[in-house]
Amino acid sequence: MRRITSPKQSVKTIVVRPAPGRKARAIVQVGPLRIPAAIGRSGRTSRKREGDGATPIAAMKVLSGFLRGDRLGQPKTALPLKRTRPSMLWCDASGHPSYNRLVQAPFAPSHEEMQRKDELYDLCLVLDWNVTSRRRNAGSAIFFHLIRPGYEPTAGCVAVSRPDMLRILPHMRRGTVVRVL
User: Fold this and answer.
1) CA distances for 36 relative to 20, 22, 112, 142, angstroms
2) Of 65, 68, 38, nearest to 54 (Cα)?
3) Is residue 119 part of a domain?
4) Per-residue pLDDT tens for 35-63?
């Protein structure tokens, strides 16, 4: 595998290109490094809607992230990572005032658990899709997270393996752009 550049050098843009012939697979490019990834089960879309299973075609800044501290040590990164707790949830109920926001349990409206039983959100970066400027039903919880075995499709996120995530995290900063083509 090729190195990105210098371990201290950050990248401004990470490019996510569709993989040939497979709508739910992609190639993540970080500098000269190319990494296999999974995207939404419905492929990519320029008209993202809540629950459509598609990854938005967009340039999304990395805002922050979450770390499952009971499973992983602090990785080398300048990104702010918040340690997940069982009470942390992400609201995906489009009619709720906390839509596409971190909320605390107990919380009855539709949501995702941030401290999952599987490993998908052990390292999970929040992408600025419908976060800083929210629109009802425009999609929520678009994350850059860890992959399921076999690179199974996501619900609309971008996912890579844990070793690959740990390789690219040192090059990311708050504001690094993930551009899905």
Assistant:
1) 12, 12, 25, 18
2) 38
3) yes
4) 999 999 999 999 999 999 999 999 999 99
Quick check: is 5 in a domain?
no
Would you tell me how many other CB atoms lie within 10 Å of the CB of residue 138? 17
What's the total number of domains in the chain?
A: 1
Whether 8 is covered by a domain: the verdict is no
163's CB contacts (< 8 A; 6+ apart) are none
CATH of the domain at 126: 2.40.440.10
Backbone φ and ψ of 141, nearest 5°: 55, 50
> In this structure, is residue 2 part of a structural domain?
no
pLDDT for 8 beyond 60: no
Q: Cβ atoms within 10 A of the Cβ of 36, count?
A: 14
- Between the two ends of the chain, the Cα-to-Cα distance in Å is 24
HSE-CB at 117 with a 13 A cutoff on CA atoms is 0
Range(s) of the domain holding residue 102:
13-180
- In tens, the pLDDT along 111-160 reads 999 999 999 999 999 999 999 999 999 999 999 999 999 999 999 999 99
Statement: residue 93 has pLDDT above 90: yes
